[in-house]
Design brief:
The protein has three domains: 1-345, no CATH class; 349-485; 500-610, Pleckstrin-homology domain (PH domain)/Phosphotyrosine-binding domain (PTB) (PH-domain like, Roll). The strands form four sheets. Strands 12-11-10-9-15-14-13 form a seven-stranded antiparallel beta sheet, with helices on both faces. A four-stranded mixed beta sheet has the order 1-2-4-3. Helix content is 55%, strand content 14%. The chain has 615 residues and is α+β, with helices and mostly antiparallel strands. InterPro entries: HtpX_protease, Peptidase_M48. One of its GO terms (molecular function) is metal ion binding. Pfam families: Peptidase_M48.
Length: 615
């Protein structure tokens, strides 16, 4: 019922959208007649033709593309009935209980999600091929009862005709969004379309939320109230664990040029090793802000609604849902091969992967230390022997001072052991006398050749003082740590691993217009700025087509660490003078008419600049 309501509303709203187009066409004709009476005939005709082309062309092209749109299944691994009979038996049984036809294809996907689709024909009147998508992380974490609830919910979209008839609503979205994108943000013709488009999404999303609630009743029917409620709660936990897994383990490795050989298996290992943390996470009350633009009701609201439904009891099946598939581990590797782009990254087993990533991260720390020392002594080619040589020559306070702003030279000298500790640790690893040991329960640990934990702070304290440096050299030799193995790799800072925190269009950099991308590690000056109201489009296009490190290589990149002093002359619009360590000066002037990539872009720029030495 809700599915048919959605289609009816979509057709009515889509018809209204084109009624708006006809009204605008009538207005355009009237405007053309009025302009024709006021100006030269040729000018009036040109204006009229431009309006008609913009209106009819945009609407027609968007409608044509929407009608021709053919959705493609997401990347994943197809599971055939003969390779996973238990899973297929479960799905078919759930489909029978839901009163609907089972899917024709089951596909495992790399997401914390499950979904269904149907490639129906003739606007949903002719049934089509049905697809069921199951996220690998769900198979690694949910019980069989919880998975039944999740799949029952998805199959409920079939029984409610949500998927078959939802194609109409989706094509309506495509037509409206396509029209708005083609007209552009600054064109007055698009104002009415954008307003109506928001109304369309408002109505369509409201019906989509009703469909989700309707599908939840099917989840309760096939799995019971408790399993349905616990499955929804567990999805929040799985999403948090999945995000943590990528942020702590996979993401930093990919940025450093490495990938694990068993990406999905690693997530299963993490979940098994951190059960105590997951228990605490389950105890947290997750309150989610809701919006009229949401396509799903908030999960806490859905849980409360499920528990308020008439009681349905199903015997709990506490087996791991992955047990429904034979050889889940090998399936994970197959999925990784199908969906993960290796590129030039090195694929390693987890122990070697962790050691390589941690060492690469430590090298980045060492490079920042070397670059800071290099700026003091005016030499970028520097290594640990040179640093210890400076300590030996009595310059410890001089090279320590930039690391500890606000401290006196004497105080900084006493803290120099901290950066020296990082350099000696790296030397120990490069010398084969220490390594990072992988752990799922905590961060990687530094161990010696015997597997015992090691710490070089005491040795670093000796090495950071001229009087005790001879003792440190003797100890380094005894341990077999060769200081010559440690030197700067990246003499100039890069944008590797940086995040975008804002952007300003048409900023004057030394009196030349640039679009300014604000990173958490520096500034990218995008050359070739154009119209002031197109800055956001240019910045989004650049970010969407090119990785941040590559953008920094192609354009001028100014790391914050290269800025010696900042003088902020005006905050709105920003006017600042940046003095670099090499003595060069950069004048940065924001214009009144330039775009902001985000509302906080200007504030984030000012905050980043103030983190340097402001004068």
């Amino acid at each position: 019922m809700v599915g048919r309501l959605r289609v009816l509303l979509s057709l009515v709203m889509l018809g209204g959208f084109y009624l708006v187009a006809l009204l605008q066409l009538a207005i355009a004709i009237g405007l053309g007649v009025w302009v024709y009476s006021l100006v030269h005939q040729a000018v009036a005709i040109k204006i009229f033709i431009w309006i008609i082309i913009a209106l009819v062309g945009s609407v027609g092209a968007a409608l044509w593309n929407a009608l021709r749109f053919k959705p493609e299944p997401p990347p994943g691994v197809v599971i055939h009935p003969d390779t996973a009979p238990q899973l297929w038996a479960e799905v078919r049984g759930l489909a029978t209980a839901a009163g609907t036809r089972p899917p024709d294809e089951i596909r495992i996907i790399p997401e914390v999600n499950a979904a269904v689709s149907e490639h129906a024909k003739l606007m949903g009147l002719i049934p089509g091929k049905r697809y069921l998508y199951i996220g690998m992380p769900l198979l690694q974490t949910l019980t069989v009862s919880q998975l039944r609830s999740v799949l029952g919910h998805e199959l409920g979209h079939y029984s409610g005709n949500h998927t078959k008839l939802g194609a109409v609503a989706y094509r309506g979205r495509l037509a409206i969004q396509g029209t708005i994108m083609r007209i552009g943000t600054g064109n007055p013709i698009g104002w009415a379309f954008r307003g109506y488009g928001r109304l369309y999404l408002l109505v369509d999303n409201a019906v989509a939320r009703m469909q989700e609630s309707e599908a939840d009743t099917v989840a309760v029917k096939v799995a019971g109230n408790e399993a349905a409620a616990s499955a929804l709660r567990e999805l929040l936990v799985i999403e948090s664990a999945w995000s943590f897994y990528f942020a702590r383990y996979v993401g930093p490795g990919a940025e450093a040029g490495f990938l694990p050989d068993d990406l999905f298996g690693g997530f299963g290992e993490l979940v098994a090793a951190r059960q105590d943390e997951l228990v605490k996470l389950r105890e947290v009350e997750h309150e989610v802000e809701s919006s009229v633009w949401d396509t799903h009701p908030p999960i806490p609201d859905r849980v409360r609604a499920i528990l308020a439904m008439p009681r349905v009891y199903q015997h709990p099946d506490t087996r791991l849902s992955g047990d429904l598939l034979p050889h889940l581990g090998s399936l994970g590797r197959t999925l990784q091969a199908a969906v993960v782009e290796v590129g030039g990254r090195q694929v390693l087993p987890w122990p070697e992967f962790t050691a390589a990533v941690a060492t690469a991260n430590l090298q980045e720390v060492a490079d920042r230390i070397f670059r800071q020392v290099g700026r003091v002594i005016k030499d970028r080619r520097i290594g640990l022997p040179a640093v210890l040589g400076l300590v030996e020559s009595g310059r410890a306070g001089e090279i320590a001072e930039p690391f500890f702003p606000g401290k006196t030279k004497r105080e900084a000298r006493e803290l120099l052991y901290q950066p020296v500790d990082a350099l000696i640790t790296l030397a120990a690893i490069r010398s084969g006398k220490a390594s990072f040991r992988h752990s799922w329960a905590q961060r990687a640990e530094l161990v010696g050749p015997d597997g015992e934990l090691v710490d070089f702070e005491e040795l670093a304290r000796l090495a950071a003082t001229a009087e005790t440096l001879p003792q440190a050299r003797i100890r380094l030799a005894e341990l077999g740590i060769e200081i010559e193995t440690t030197a700067v790799v990246e003499q100039v800072a890069t944008a590797k691993g940086a995040d975008v925190i804002g952007g300003l269009g048409n900023v004057k950099i030394d009196k030349v217009s640039h679009d300014l991308l604000i990173l958490d590690t520096g500034l990218i000056f995008l050359a070739g700025a154009g119209d002031s109201d197109e800055g956001n489009k240019r910045m989004h296009a650049a970010l969407g087509s090119t990785p941040i490190p590559e953008l920094a290589r192609r354009h001028r990149f100014l790391p914050y660490e290269e800025i010696a002093a900042v003088k902020i002359e005006k905050e709105v619009p920003v006017r600042a003078t940046l003095t670099l360590h090499d003595g060069n000066v950069v004048a940065l002037h924001e214009t009144w008419t330039g775009d902001q990539l985000t509302k906080q872009s200007r504030d984030n720029l000012l905050q980043a600049l103030r983190q340097t030495t402001e004068v």
